[in-house]
Each structure stands twice: as C-alpha cells, then as structure tokens.
Prior knowledge:
Helix content: 55-70%
Strand content: under 5%
Radius of gyration: 18 Å
Amino acid sequence: xxxxxxxxxxxxxxxxxxxxxxxxxxxxxxxxxxxxxxxxxxxxxxxxxxxxxxxxxxxxxxxxxxxxxxxxxxxxxxxxxxxxxxxxxxxx
Length: 92
C-alpha cells in the first residue's frame, strides 16, 4: 500500500487502554487468536516491503482474514440462537 502500512493501521487492540479489564480481555482465546493473526499480517506486510514483493504471502493473508470473518459470523449466529432460546424460554 503506497504511503502507509495498511495492516499496521488496523491494530484491533489499539483502542483499549492498559488496565486489569484489558488483561482479562487479552486472556480471551478469541482475542489472543486475533492478536496473533494481526502480528502475522504485520510480519507479512514488513516482509513484502523488504522484499518488494507485493504478492508474497497473499494466500496466507486470505486464509487468516477469511478464518476471522467466518468466526465472527459463527459468533453472531450463536448470539442469535441464544437470544431466540432466551425469548422462547421467557414465552413459556
């Protein structure tokens, strides 16, 4: 990306300040996986810049992004099922 680093600007953890609550969030398996995926994407981006090879690691990048998107979709479905189940239980 010309003029900036795309993945470095996407840090999913940047909005949280350091606190006991943040430490608890970082123990969350999903958050830990996201942080690891983000670090992997940063390393890929640095390697692309160093090697001047913009296509380097594109398959790995796509797999990481799609995995996280699918996981988010599954989480949303789980939340919807929980809401429907709770509403059904309240209605009985």
